[in-house]
Specification:
7-stranded mixed β-sheet; Rossmann fold; about 40% helix; alpha/beta; single chain; 13 helices
């Protein structure tokens, strides 16, 4: 195989321009990540670094660029995404974690300052496991259970837990919160032990709005991870009535919500024995996290 030595920037420059021309704001970073992937490297590349690259690696790079030009997000091409302090592997049934959801982690850390306390955590609708695993990483004496309707996404949580050295404190549970008695099943699986912390970023986009989302979202994030039903509130309507049965009396529930959903979600929670303790805005000033406790 013949290799050539080349400066990263001279290799990626034409591709950066193509991506910029279709409006990709992160064109340079995207190209460097895709080049790293083509070279099977984990570390990021610098623009003015010299690399040794074979013809087949160059061909691979160009085919990945073509996928990006077709609208596939980089995280989906390289199947990984950084979230909070770690990197998470993704598959086609996991949501691509959003930095808005880091607000959930930030909020829990503010509420539970002692990192050495032992918390029993539930990540409801776990996707890649980015929320619960980030918490396990922050709280080394704690344990988490991960619930998802998708077996394939639970496989990814397992893989991420293993990669991050967190599998001994993780439990994976395949449940559908739309099925009656899901809370009772869970209580049996957990041998009657209730949770200190319940964290959830459920699907909350109204069905009709999904087709108006960016191509990168509507074509590549799983529908089941986005779809909140007609008014976006289906998941809250299934989850909230049962939380009182599975949370400890002093426990706290941290829910991510979509823009403008706070009044509706607070109304549902209040109907089912919970009261709002606090709320937290994300970096754009949108109310993103609601904290509930038993009344
Ligand atoms: C918005 S995603 C959140 C994923 C991850 N927690 C995150 O923040 O990146 C919602 C998750 O809920 C899961 N889900 C959707 N409907 C469900 C149901 N009826 N029962 C259990 N899990 C469900 C989806 O598979 C998806 O993983």
């Amino acid at each position: 195989m013949t290799y050539k030595n080349i400066d990263v920037y001279s290799l990626i420059k034409p591709e950066v321009l193509k991506l910029r021309n279709i409006g990709v704001e992160t064109a340079n970073l995207d190209c460097r990540l895709l080049l790293s992937k083509s070279l099977r490297r984990r570390e990021s590349l610098y623009n003015h670094q010299n690399i040794s690259i074979s013809e087949s690696e160059i061909a691979k790079f160009h085919s990945l660029i073509q996928e990006r030009l077709n609208g596939k997000p980089v995280s989906r091409i390289i199947n990984r995404r950084n979230f909070w302090k770690k990197e998470f592997a993704l598959n086609d049934e996991t949501l691509d974690p959003r930095c808005d959801s880091e607000t959930l982690i930030e909020t829990i850390i503010e509420q539970y300052k002692d990192k050495l306390q032992s918390l029993k955590i539930l990540d409801l609708g776990s996707g890649s496991g980015c929320l619960g695993l980030s918490l396990l990483d922050e709280y080394p004496q704690s344990e988490a259970s991960f619930i998802d309707i998708s077996l394939k996404s639970l496989e990814m949580v397992k893989k991420n837990a293993l990669n991050l050295g967190l599998s001994e404190r993780s439990k994976y549970i395949n449940l559908n919160w739309k099925v009656d008695g899901w809370d009772e099943k869970l209580i049996t699986i957990e041998k009657n032990i209730k949770y200190d912390v319940i964290i959830s970023n459920p699907p909350y986009i109204p069905t009709d709005e999904i087709k108006t989302l960016k191509k990168e979202v509507k074509n590549f994030d799983p529908f089941v991870a986005l779809n909140g039903g007609k008014d976006g509130l289906d998941a809250y309507n299934s989850i909230l009535p049962k939380l009182i049965n599975i949370i400890k009396s002093s426990g706290k529930i941290f829910l991510e919500i979509g823009k403008g959903q706070e009044n509706c979600v607070i109304k549902i929670a209040t109907e089912y024995g919970l009261s709002l303790k606090e709320y937290k805005k994300d970096l754009s000033g949108v109310t993103r996290v609601l904290i509930f406790m038993i009344k």
